[in-house]
Amino acid sequence: MRGHEPAMRPPYPPSPERSAELRRRFSEEARSERPDLSTLCLLVGAEADRELDEGGLDEAQVELDRLAGLLPHRPGGPRAWAVALRELLGERTGFHGTPADYQRLESSLLHEVLVRRRGLPILLSVVWMEVARRAGAPVCGVALPGHFVVGFGSGAEQVLADPFDGGRVLTGADAELLVVGATGARLDPAMLRPADPLDVVLRILNNVRAWAVARPERSDVALWAVELSLLLPSHPARLRYERAQLLVQRGDFVGGAVELEAYADVVSAVDEAASERVRGEASAARAMLN
């Protein structure tokens, strides 16, 4: 894959038939005994981008394999692995992030990140993790508040690296600053726990939804991101409400009303007042048909 910056083109979802097949595969992978992070991320990319066909999915996996093959054979302990990944991905092949990447949907799509060598912290971390894993490194994702990084090793020997900053190896003070900058709170050791692959995917889809919320004309993106999130075995119940609102926004008043009523039934068990408000929204949606 080339490392130059391609001309910007807005990705658009595939045909309904292709989308249905991708979602079936996404659901099956998410419910498998050991969900494969790169596969799930690439299926998200295919749902976003109609130009990503089966050949493109295979090409992206081959590129991850190729990059892993460029790493030295078992360079040593956690710090040696972190340095080896930084030298390969951050320095030799130029993977890193910039503030402008937060404005691009492509920054949340693994196949685009592999081509552009740019992306959000979590997607660059996926590249680091998948390349390192293929090479046998003891690697995991670390979901620091507001800034995803990768960890090599575990416990007291764990070494953190920031792929968004080209794989810079972090000191304890560096990690503390990242957390304080994002939350104003001190670093809690619980924040260093390995991130579950499905939590990583949900966080990626949350980023896609946030991108779309800022662009009302791309409610199509918000809708497929919500619908993929709902296919994960564990997800916030409120996503059903968000999907209903999007359906109404996009003119599917009946479908939105049905979803709102179903969500109201769920909410009624814990908050009757909220349930009644949602039922009112469902009635308003149906009234839009008149």
What topology emerges from the helices and strands here?
Layout: H1 16-30, H2 37-48, H3 54-69, H4 78-92, H5 110-116, H6 121-134, E1 139-144, E2 147-152, E3 159-162, E4 168-170, H7 172-183, H8 197-213, H9 219-231, H10 238-249, H11 253-267, H12 272-287
Antiparallel strand pairs: 1-2, 2-3, 3-4
Domain Protein SirB1 N-terminal: 63-206
Family: Belongs to the UPF0162 family.
Pfam families: TPR_9 (PF13371), Transglut_core2 (PF13369)
Features:
4 strands; Tetratricopeptide repeat protein; about 290 residues; 12 helices; four-stranded antiparallel beta sheet; alpha+beta; 2 domains
Describe this structure in words.
The structure is a single chain. This protein is an alpha+beta fold and 290 residues long. It folds into two domains: 16-197, no CATH class; 236-288, no CATH class. 57% of the residues lie in helices and 7% in strands. The chain has twelve helices and four strands. The chain has helices spanning 16-30, 37-48, 54-69, 78-92, 110-116, 121-134, 172-183, 197-213, 219-231, 238-249, 253-267, 272-287, and strands at residues 139-144, 147-152, 159-162, 168-170. The protein has a four-stranded antiparallel beta sheet, with helices on both faces. A hairpin with a 2-residue loop joins strand 1 and strand 2. Helix 3 (54-69) crosses helix 6, helix 8 (197-213) packs antiparallel against helix 9 (219-231) and helix 9 (219-231) packs antiparallel against helix 10 (238-249).
